[in-house]
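Field reference: sequence -> structure
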Amino acid sequence: MIRHAVVPAYLLLCLLLGGASAAGFAANLALQLAALPLIGWAAWQWMQGGTTTAVRVPLGLMGLFVLLAIAQLVPLPPALWTRLPGRDMVIEGYRLLGLPLPWLPLTLAPDAALASILWLLPAFAVLLAMLLLGAFRGRIVAGVIVAVTLASVALGALQVIGGESAYLYRVTNYGVAVGFFANGNHNATLMLVCIPFLAALQAALLRGGRSPRSASAVRLLVGAGYAVIVVGLGINASLAGIGLAVPVALGTWLTFGRMRPMLRRGLSVMTLLLSLAALATIAVGPFGNNLFGQQTTDPALSRQTSFALTWQAARRFFPVGSGTGSFQPVYRTQERLDTVTTVYMNHAHNDWLEILLETGLPGIVLALLVVAWWLRRARAIWIADEADPFARAAVIAIGAMLAHSLVDYPLRTAGLAAVFATCLGLISGARPYVRVRRQASNVRHLAL
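Structure field:
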């Protein structure tokens, strides 16, 4: 059915064109424009038939997110906004210029706040199309994620050995295997997401009782896919990607591997210990990470400095925040003048801290509500009578993206935001669209 290809096709476009947050404006504009018909179609379907119980919570959370974003742009009178934390520098600026205090919105960067809403249109379109239109199939979605990931690894290898001509964006990490992205860490995130979806595809393909030869071919191809991902993580060299690959791979193995319950419980404890050991090794080992230990190379641009200054600013603007899109101008007010150069910090490299800075307590509470819903759905998916491999893969993928967001900003690209939205749709309980068939009536009428 053509309808089932809508989300996979749009997801494919997002992954191929939406790999940058600070570049690729034309491609992202095209994705945003393409999202509008999907959102309109979903809204029309909603008005026609309402919603099912399964999708009301994610729709409600998305509605709260939209309300929070719109609230950032509502003009406030001077008597109100001057009482908000952190606005003293704005008041002082108008005083020095001798200008009266105008009505201003909550956000200190209204243009960037509006742009942030537009950047999320692709993710909104994917989620609404899955929840309200059922325009997807789990197997096709997983196939798109796996295919693009393997192609991205191949492109990344060409970038490492082929020079600047193989890169898709002008503002990028030259010398790093970034694939279809501008940031190497985002390519690593996609590889992490691919790990459970490869296992889900294998489980779905083997479920139909294939012949031994076909089953061997499936296992061989999936094994080759894993080998490509291992190579991809190696040439990508993202420390966070390599560190998170251990819990993601072990969690995937525990989820989809066949083993006795007692053995599974024992391996679960071992998985937790090995995951903590891997992350600790990456954190404190001699790998040149810029978060822990003494920083000797560009300390002003390290995550250690970024986290400290963002936390400092977040405390200043708590509990309402500085407003969506205001990270860059606010962060610059925290930097020491002797460390300022032509290179600047575009994001906090910790989305949780950036959310706290920009949206304060309301944003963090909303983010925690999403996490709570994810955990609740994960429990329901694991105890379900009939296992859904793609929903289980989505649970693991969401965990990987949320964890990677502690040291980066993967969800600020249209491609990975669309993947995240796809995973939310898969765990929501939404089902693919089924055409209603008319059946001939068997009622006999008596002729009088």
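Note: The first helix runs from residue 6 to 17.
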